[in-house]
C-alpha cells in the first residue's frame, strides 16, 4: 500500500462517504456534474468518481461546458486509477471500452462514467430526427405517424443507455444549464 499524503486523504474521504451512505434515504442512480475545466481540476473530478463509486451511484456524467474535458478523458482515467488503488469497485468508461476493468473476487459497486458536451444534446437529437425523416435510420412505425414509444426506441438506439439524472450539480457564479437537455433538468434536482 502507498502511504503518500494524497493516498491517505482519499482513504479518509472514502471512509467518510461510507459512514454517511446509510443516512441517505433516496436512491441516487445518476449524478450529472456541469464541469468547467477552468474551475475544476482532474484531481477533483477523479475524487468525485471515486466517492460516487463508494456511495453506490451507478452512473456519473460530466457535462463538459468548455469542451476541454473530452480532450483530457484519458488523463482523467489515469488520475482515477492513480487515486483508486486499494478501493474495490469497477469503473467503466463509456468512450473508452478497452480500458474497462473489474475487481476480481470482491463484491463491489460498478459505476459508468460519461463525458458529455453540448454536441451530445440538441445537435445529436436533431441529427437523429433528420435520419428518421430521411428513412436512413431504422425506426419501426406501426402507422403513418410515429408514436412516442417508437421515437423513444429510436432515440435509445442512438444514445447510450444512461438513466435520467437524479441530481445535477453546478458550480460557479451563474445558475445556467449550458445546453443540458431539458428533460434531464426536469428529472434532476
From TrEMBL:
Plastid is among the record's keywords: no
Location of this chain's protein in the cell: Endoplasmic reticulum membrane
InterPro entries per UniProt: Nus1/NgBR (IPR038887), UPP_synth-like_sf (IPR036424)
Superkingdom of the source species: Eukaryota
UniProt keyword Transmembrane, yes or no: yes
Gene Ontology MF, one: ditrans,polycis-polyprenyl diphosphate synthase [(2E,6E)-farnesyl diphosphate specific] activity
UniProt entry keywords in alphabetical sequence: Endoplasmic reticulum, Magnesium, Membrane, Transferase, Transmembrane, Transmembrane helix
Listed pathway(s): Protein modification; protein glycosylation
EC number annotated for this UniProt entry: 2.5.1.87
Gene Ontology CC terms: dehydrodolichyl diphosphate synthase complex; endoplasmic reticulum membrane
Catalytic class of the enzyme: transferase
Requisite cofactors: Mg(2+)
The reaction(s) this protein catalyses: n isopentenyl diphosphate + (2E,6E)-farnesyl diphosphate = a di-trans,poly-cis-polyprenyl diphosphate + n diphosphate
Family: Belongs to the UPP synthase family.
PANTHER family, per database record: DEHYDRODOLICHYL DIPHOSPHATE SYNTHASE COMPLEX SUBUNIT NUS1
Name of the protein described by the UniProt record: ditrans,polycis-polyprenyl diphosphate synthase [(2E,6E)-farnesyldiphosphate specific]
